[in-house]
Amino acid sequence: MYKLEIELKRGHNLAIRDRGGTSDPYVKFKLAGKEVFRSKTIHKNLNPVWDEKITLVVDSLSDPLYVKVFDYDFGLQDDFMGSAFLYLESLEQQRTIPVTLVLKDHQLPNEDLGCLELAVTLTPKNKIKNRFLLTLFLTVKTSVCVWGRLGQQQQSMRLTEVHRKSQLWRGIVSITLIEGRNLTPMDPNGLSDPYAKFRLGPQKYKSKTMAKTLSPQWREQFDLHLYEETGGVLEITVWDKDTGRRDDFIGRCQLDLSTLAKEKTHHLELPLEESRGILNLLVTLTASAAVSIADLSLTPLEDPEERREILKRYSLRKSFFNLKDVGIVQVKVLRAEGLMAADVTGKSDPFCVLELNNDRLQTHTIYKNLNPEWNKVFTFNVKDVHSVLEVSVFDEDRDRSADFLGKVAIPLLNVRNGVQKAYVLKNKELTGSTKGVIFLEIEVIYNTIKAAIKTVVPAEQKYIEEEPKVSKQLLQQNFNRVKRCIMVLLSYGTYINTCFEWESSQRSIIAFILFVVVVWNFELYMLPLGLVLLLVWNYFFSSSREMSEDEEEDKEERDSEHKGFMDKLYAIQEVFISVQSALDEVASFGERLKNTFNWTVPFLSSLAIAALCLATFLLYLIPLRYLVLAWGVNKFTKKLRDPYRIDNNELLDFLSRVPSDVQMMQYYDLKMDPGQSPNKRRRTNPS
Fold first, then answer.
1. Which keywords does this Swiss-Prot/TrEMBL entry list (predicted)?
2. Mind listing the domains of the chain with CATH numbers?
3. Which of 368, 397, 531, 604 is the most exposed place for a label (fewest CB within 10 A)?
4. What tens digit of pLDDT does each residue of 622-651 get?
5. b/e code 78-98 from CB counts within 10 Å (16+ = b)
6. pLDDT surpassing 60 at residue 163
């Protein structure tokens, strides 16, 4: 066995991958097909200096060290910048050797991608120790094989440990962006449309844009992960949003987090370095002890003492301590079966990614296997019990982006604690199944009171979200969803109207008596009580029926995807016509209200004044309870007094007489052009 010490020094003339003519390079080392190291990212630099060291234990010199360089792109797939091999057999042992690796891309063999400078030291293990171990194990002939397997297991454990440590964060930086003051104007009107960008290592966050102001009030809160014990440097830039062209740079500032005390909120006013203006922030550094990756033999919740400590931390007696720490979730990623073959060999190199809001951890890669066994345990902090755990399976490729194999989304409140369950993998949109099954065992422990408090505060937004795209299928799906909601309301309205129409005498009599009793005895506490009764009724009688109806409708939507081109075209046309008509109705209603108060039609505005004065007089003299009773009695007896009367709504009938803005334009009289008068045309006629 050998000890391999590598110092990653710098890169020279690396490839340009960003539009600004630079790159954000980082380096990955792979040994025996496993990732053993990932460097930090050097932003906007083609000649980066890393000066990072790593020590590995190697049991064979036949496997070369595979070095790859990537350009980091936030929210996108990282760009490949080149790779090279370091052949360990060619290294001189027991001395430090400078190595220059020329980067290549087999798809572009003639492109100059630059080079990396390393210092490598290869040292064999102590000979005396090797001799002692060899003598000990040669007493039994078969023990030599055991020693070989033991060495491989030790190396695998070391590689897994490196992979694990590269993912875990040591704390959380909670940032509240309050406001900016006296920013530099960038627009011709003397104002700006400012937004702020934050970067801490590979993590980025972009605030919302505040229109036409030099003193924006953002009032945004977000969290970033702290990977370095020293804290790191938080970089902040402020930009002016410009539609149709490149955004203008306003200014920047930096915050060294190592200077801030932990477990304390700091109110900071940071001046911008390259222009005038100040940013007002609240920054809090807190430790994060609940995030971990372990083997199945080291499951945190299966240790009785640690479990008691966790249950005590989230007991009801601790309900008002650290309200952000709602609970923990432990996920055992056991194995997958029957995965899709993504490689030309008919195999895949699967790894698993777990995401809980903005927290992201992943397993190691199992190479050339469609039935991988990871047997890892992941532990996350739960900041919102309504969060959804997303588990995605990918196929690792050497120099390309990972191929998607499947995904499942599991709401934490739907988890059955301690039960191993097989989840069928779905497609990226989570609308249909794909090939493969993943086996998980999840356990969630949380404080009920903290979870209830968190329910009524804004939910955490994901930093990385896909840009919305125009989709005809999605448009039709959303239209059908809105249509279903409206149809439910209309069905309730129709049912109530049948009571007024006396279609069923028994139902109308019961409804009339119930209306009189409720109105006569009504108190405000009856409103929430009525909603409670509705919820209880639906819990016992409606949940299963509505679920089956929704499943049938979803099945109809999936079946509609297989329709022909003309059927889809007619369906989209119907959606557009319906949306167009609905928008016209809503706009016309609003415009008619506005025109009533604008005296567009003086007669109708006068009628409105008379009706409102009468309503004011009646409400002043008569209690509201009696007026509602009178309205209800009139509504119930209208059909009995005149069976052939056409039902109507007086308010809507009144508004239908008020013209909308479109009708006002149609009724507008055009002025006659004097040059086009008939008399002038006759005088200019030569005949």
1. Calcium, Membrane, Metal-binding, Repeat, Transmembrane, Transmembrane helix
2. 2-124 (2.60.40.150), 171-286 (2.60.40.150), 292-455 (2.60.40.150), 523-538+576-673 (no CATH)
3. 531
4. 998 899 999 888 888 888 888 877 777 788
5. bbbbbbbebebeebeeeeeee
6. no
